[in-house]
Write the structure tokens for this entry.
Amino acid sequence: MESDYSDEERNSTEKEVSDVLLRISEFNVSKVSTAIDSATQYDECFSMSESLDNLISEICEINITNSDYLNKKALIMGLVLKCSKKLNKISFRDMQ
């Protein structure tokens, strides 16, 4: 049975998955959490939020089954929520 993908396409996909898994493993949850806590400017927090959103989008494009990566994915999603709450807090403060 022949594959629907060429070797080049398969290698490219494997590299993309490998790159995302590397980004997950190197992601420092504690450092980003501290950066969110100390953010005081909307633009600064918004930039972090966009970066986290992009990472989550990349993560969701691959099928992760390894529990270590799944745990890290959950922590990153928690940071997305934390950053969103911080953005709302800064927006509310700036409107006062």
